[in-house]
Every structure is written in C-alpha cells, then in structure tokens.
Specification:
The structure holds 2 protein chains of 2 kinds.
Chain A lengths: L4 H12 L3 H12 L2 H17 L9 H22 L7 H10 L11 H11 L2 H12 L4 H8 L3 H19 L8
Chain B lengths: L2 H12 L5 H13 L1 H20 L7 H21 L3 H17 L1 H5 L3 H14 L6 E2 L3 H11 L14 E11 L2 E10 L2 E9 L11 E3 L2 E8 L2 E7 L3 H21 L4
The chains are: A mainly alpha, B alpha+beta.
Chain lengths: 176, 255
Amino acid sequence: MPEGDAARTRRFEAVALPQLAAAYNLARWICRNEADAADVVQEAVMRALQYFDSYRGGDARAWLLQIVRNAAHSWIERNRAAGMVRVTDAELEQVAAADDPMAAVAADSAAARLRQAIGQLPLEQREVLILREFEQLSYRQIASILDSPIGTVMSRLSRARDQLAIILRPDMEVPT
Amino acid sequence: MNHEQAYALRDAYLDHELDAAATLALEAHVRECEQCAAALGARRALLVQLRDAAQPSPVPPMLRARIVRQLRSHRHLARMRSPWLGALAAGVVLVVAGFLLGRNLARAPDLDTELVDASVRALLSAHPIDVASSDHHTVKPWLSGQLPFSPPVPELGTQGDALLGGRVDFVARTPVAALLYQHGNHRINVYLWPHRTAGIRPAHDRSLDGYHVLTTEAGDFTAVMVSDLSREELAAFRTRWSAAAAAITATAPAD
C-alpha cells in the first residue's frame, strides 16, 4: 500500500468535499425530496471513498456526480419496488420552492414556474437538464456521468427543453 | 443545411458544442430561414430563463456535518486498523464481550457521543438557545417551567465566561437542561439533569472529534460540559463553573 488509509481519506476529502453542493443539488433534483437527497449524498460519498482508487485525478465533479447519480437511481429503484415513489404536485412545488424562500410568496414568478416545470420532466430528461443548465457541464462530462454516448445526451437535452417550452407555453408550436 | 438538420443542431449550437464547420452552416441557414431563426430565438430565450432559474442549493449544514463526521471516524478507524490487524481482532473480542456484559450499552449510542451530537446540533441550528439571557433570574425560572426540575444556573459573568442562555434538549430520549456559555471565541454547552434520572447513564470525561466532554456535580445535579475549547481550558472552566454552582446551591436552595 503506497499510502496509509488515513492519508488516503484525507486526500479524498480534499477532492470530494468541494463537490458536495453539486452532489446535493443533483440528488435533490433526481429524488425530488430533500431528506432522501441528503441520505443519497451521504451514501454516495462513502461509496466514492471505497472507489477512490479508481479516481485518476482530473474531473472531480464528474467523477463524484456519476457516483451520486448511481446512488440516486438505486434509491429510486428501491423505493419504486416498495411502491413508495408517489410524488404529488404539492411536493413538486415544494422542491421547486425549497431553495427560494420568496417562491412561497411569488409562486407565479417565472423562475419558480420554470423550476416546477423541471420537476415534472421525466427522470432521464430532468437529470441531463440539471447537469447542463444548473451545473453547466459540457456534453462530454454529462456523457461520462451517464455512461452514455454524447448523442444520447444531446437528444435527451433537446427533448427536455422542448418539453419545458411546451409546459411553460402550451400554445407555443414546436416546429418539426 | 436544411430545416431538420438546423432544428436538430440548434441546442448544440446554443451550448457551443458544435464544431466550426457545422456552426457556420447553421448560421448560414438561419440567415436565410425565418422559421429557424424564430425557433432559435425562442430557444435562446428559454436558456436565458433557465439560467435565471438556476439557484445554488446550499448543502444543509447537518448533511455536511454528518459526512465530515463519518469520514473522520473512518480516518480514526483506518489509523487504528492498518498496522495492527491483531489489535483489531482483540478489539472485536472486547466489543463482543462488552456486548454480552451490557446489552443496553451496546444497543444505544453511548451518552458522551449523544451529548457531543446534541451540542453540535444545537450550535449548527439557528437557535442554540430557547431563552436568551445572561441573567439567571430569567433563565432558571424558564427552565423550571419547562422541566420537572430546577437546575442551578451559575452566571460566571466576571471571569470571561458569559452566560448566553438556556434551552431544553433531549438526551437519551430524556429532557435535560442545557446552558450555553461563551468563552472567548468558543461556546460551551452545559447539560444538567438530577442524579439518577431514569434512562440516563453516567457520562465520562472524554474527547471525541475535537470536542471535549467533562463531567461534574452540582448539588443534586449531574453536569456535563461539552465544547471545542482545549481540554485544559475546559477543565479550568469546569472548576470555575463548579465553584459558582456550589455557591448558589448553598445559598439559594430553590428559586
């Protein structure tokens, strides 16, 4: 062993802890629930520590977010199996409003409406959209997080944006 | 470039993910085609709206604390484990023996850990005190009103230790009194409960994750102080606190 476990953990902290906000944000949007997102992030961080030897330097955010995404997806699987994923509109609104104290007051503001619309997107579109719009990752980074081809990222992102445009303005025509 | 191609590539174009040749071809098409220009404009507007909707979601302090704590305990464990696997095996034997000797102890987290957790939780929260006052005439009656006992509330004001206030906390699912003091840049939680309170085991002097736990007695009460002060400073605080508590328990048996 080239270094002690304690030194390794310390090195891991330096890599992973700065990415905690991005990790929590992604988990929150996937789970659509803050308490579960916190559990998912904690689980993912401990899992990342186990896999830390596979981290070869470089893009720490994409590396951690991939683990967070996998943890969030297994969380969804587990809860779906238990028949527990039932998200009401009120909960969606809560997720949308959670990071915006003013949203409760101005629920009809454009940004709040948009966040609510994002919450209604199907998971595979929602996660790509969050990674692109909120985390500002490149298609290549998103592709590595999803373990999918760049073409898949592109088409999901386009569909997500189409969907948002429709939700926000049902009367708007999408040219074909 | 035709309509379909331009439509399919507009997202990549707006995200600056197109190569130079495709970028030029798309721009050329959009100059000629009003429909595609309008679609691109609408999309650009949506992206601007999205950017405005993005808000940082701060990591809840409790989550950060939980993760840091877990990593830290992992680090301690690793430090103990790596060179001495034999010692670990011996430790396992001890833990099993301890488990068999006292199943109650093995089942619940020990009291010192719980007190440190409660202290960290209180200091992370926006309201570490329920009743903010440096006057024991305010704090003590308030605590007495909330609890089935009336704990001593020493003020200590003259020795650089300021009483900030008090609150009711839960330790081992039992309500206890908590006093918050300030010493320099550090805060000290003092937990108080009557001796032999059901459900609470005695606490021990101990250091845990940079926090120190020191116990003492004041009249009929057990007092446990938790702080990130250095152990020596906390011990000195304990001496001052005990003296002040002894003075008030001797002169004012009840409020």
